[in-house]
């Protein structure tokens, strides 16, 4: 269509320039927060048989937290000097993010030459999560690639390779580990062989090559279980920073877990067999978003792992077809800064809370859409209609979307 061609003509030059600005300018410039230097130092120490896990965790500087398997995979970076290694990491991260946008476009049924591909790329690089992944220079882009590959391979029933995709990310950064619950739900047991086996084998290989592997167990693992009050957008991190009573933090955590349990149950019951893509992408978003909120550490740039959930807006029955959900997306992904010279306390509150409030609103919106659909089903059953699911007239998106939009 002519309108789609026009959209592509507008988006491509803007998107390309945005990618260049985010990578060559902001990325290379860097920031006072530097996630790459601890990784480079750990890789250098690993190659030279020096201690890796000897940091002072009492400081607020970025710390190296990867297990020995992750250290071994990162070790080739130390072959280059630090500056060139960082530039290479940024360049590869940009390429990985472009591939992620392409794979998401294809996964949701659009071609590479449609307007959707440049639109997805434009959205990617307009967000805080992608910008800070490049500026701070961390591993998140590779985690997103592993997540998308895992989903695509899981749906195509290439189970062992799906396990490899997620297993490699877990070997470095276990943020995707909750998604193994969906493997259990779908009874694709073979995925667990490689999903657990890959990080296990890599750790076995890396353990004797490390100078101090037990320090990861004795020092780093306990630190990972602690709640820190800086660079932490989880409920407990936010509570620690603002001095909120622990009982209230626990109440909020329990509430979000309850909402997640209901959402996962409803999605499993009504969508797993009829729309696997919608089930898998929405369930993954619920699992990860809830984990970010209720875990000990949730950082804003984790939000890129919610991109598959956001893409469901193109699917009938999506929980993303309402404005509160996208207001939540704005909160957890905006690159806007709310620090205010005129209203300093209010601006600081908004700046420090935009990510947790965004995650919270997004998870509440998904829950409410699914709850309204459940109530519609109950009403239909009471009136003698079909209660069986989407294939027999269950909610297709409109009842829930209307309800949440009016809420």
Automatic annotation (TrEMBL):
Keyword Iron attributed: no
Superkingdom classification of source: Bacteria
Membrane topology category: Multi-pass membrane protein
Places the protein is found: Cell membrane
MF term (GO), any: hexosyltransferase activity
Keyword line: Cell membrane, Membrane, Transferase, Transmembrane, Transmembrane helix
Pfam families in UniProt: GT87 (PF09594)
Main location: membrane
Region (Disordered): 384-407
GO cellular component, one term: plasma membrane
Listed transmembrane segments: 6-25, 84-104, 134-154, 160-184, 191-209, 247-268, 277-302, 357-375
Matching InterPro entries: GT87
UniProt similarity note: Belongs to the glycosyltransferase 87 family.
Record-given protein name: Arabinosyltransferase AftC
Originating species: Gordonia neofelifaecis NRRL B-59395
């Amino acid at each position: 269509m002519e309108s789609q061609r026009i959209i592509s003509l507008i988006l491509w030059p803007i998107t390309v320039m945005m990618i260049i600005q985010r990578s060559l300018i902001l990325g290379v410039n860097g920031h006072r927060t530097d996630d790459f230097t601890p990784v480079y130092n750990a890789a250098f120490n690993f190659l030279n048989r020096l201690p890796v896990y000897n940091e002072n965790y009492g400081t607020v500087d970025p710390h190296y937290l990867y297990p020995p398997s992750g250290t071994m995979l990162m070790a080739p970076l130390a072959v280059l000097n630090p500056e060139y290694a960082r530039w290479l990491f940024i360049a590869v991260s940009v390429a990985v993010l472009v591939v992620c946008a392409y794979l998401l476009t294809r996964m949701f049924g659009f071609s590479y030459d449609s307007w959707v591909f440049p639109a997805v790329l434009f959205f990617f690089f307009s967000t805080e999560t992608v910008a800070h992944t490049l500026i701070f220079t961390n591993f998140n882009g590779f985690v997103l690639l592993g997540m998308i590959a895992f989903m695509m391979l899981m749906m195509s029933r290439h189970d062992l390779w799906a396990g490899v995709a997620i297993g490699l990310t877990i070997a470095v950064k276990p943020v995707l580990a909750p998604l193994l619950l969906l493997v259990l739900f779908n009874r694709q047991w073979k995925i667990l062989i490689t999903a657990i086996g890959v990080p296990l084998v890599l750790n076995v290989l890396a353990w004797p090559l490390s100078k101090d592997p037990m320090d990861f167990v004795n020092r780093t693992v306990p630190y990972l279980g602690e709640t820190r009050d800086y660079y932490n957008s989880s409920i407990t991190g936010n509570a620690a920073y603002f001095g909120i009573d622990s009982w209230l933090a626990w109440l909020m955590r329990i509430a979000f877990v309850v909402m997640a349990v209901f959402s996962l149950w409803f999605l499993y019951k009504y969508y797993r067999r009829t729309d696997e893509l919608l089930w898998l992408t929405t369930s993954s978003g619920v699992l990860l978003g809830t984990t970010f909120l209720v875990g000990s550490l949730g950082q804003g740039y984790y939000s890129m792992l919610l991109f598959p959930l956001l893409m469901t807006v193109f699917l009938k029955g999506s929980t993303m077809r309402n404005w509160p959900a996208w207001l939540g997306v704005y909160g957890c992904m905006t690159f806007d800064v709310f620090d205010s010279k005129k209203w300093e306390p209010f601006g600081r509150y908004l700046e420090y809370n935009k990510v947790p409030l965004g995650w919270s609103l997004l998870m509440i919106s998904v829950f409410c859409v699914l709850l309204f659909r459940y109530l519609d089903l109950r009403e239909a059953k009471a009136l003698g209609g079909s209660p069986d699911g989407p294939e027999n007239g269950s909610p297709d998106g409109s009842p829930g979307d209307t309800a949440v939009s009016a809420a």
